[in-house]
Design a protein that fits this description.
The chain is an all-alpha fold. It has helices at 6-13, 17-41, 58-81, 83-105, 113-116, 120-141, 147-185. Helices cover 78% and strands 0% of the residues.
Amino acid sequence: MARSNFFIRLLNRLPKYALWLTGAWVIITNTILFPFFGAKMDPAGQQTPLDLQVGFSKAVAEETLAAYGAQGREVYFLTELTVDLIYPIMYAVFFGLLLLRAAKRAQVAPTGFAYQLIALPFVAALGDFIENAALVTMVQQFPILGNTAVLVANAGQLLKWAAIIVSVLCLLSWWVVGWQKRQRQA
């Protein structure tokens, strides 16, 4: 049997409660932490954070960061360097563990290419880190934003969202296949 990649070996070594722990972190971050810091960045709630915009221009970045004001930009900067530094790791592990479980139930061959797709959430996390580094750079450069930072942020976003979409498609298809196999065995 071929050796699986580093990330799959890591996921296989984690305790069973890691799924619940990382899942709880993802839920808490999305329902409590991000909304809390979002309200501090943009009390009027009129701006979509750049991380959540799929592709944005330099003009949109300038407009969004200007609308945040100095205090909002400071909160954005600190959020990117704290919560949004831990978040990609947690969602990568969480979705990696979900994919691993679904692949096992669907009896995906551990030696095949499809099994290697379990590592895609870590590719998404890499894209998120690239995007976050570029966003931190843009906040620091404001009001003079470089084209490179905007381009890098968009490239990171593209990588992140592409990996997330393929991960979700794998997860759904493996769940369906696993369910069908269990139905045939019953």
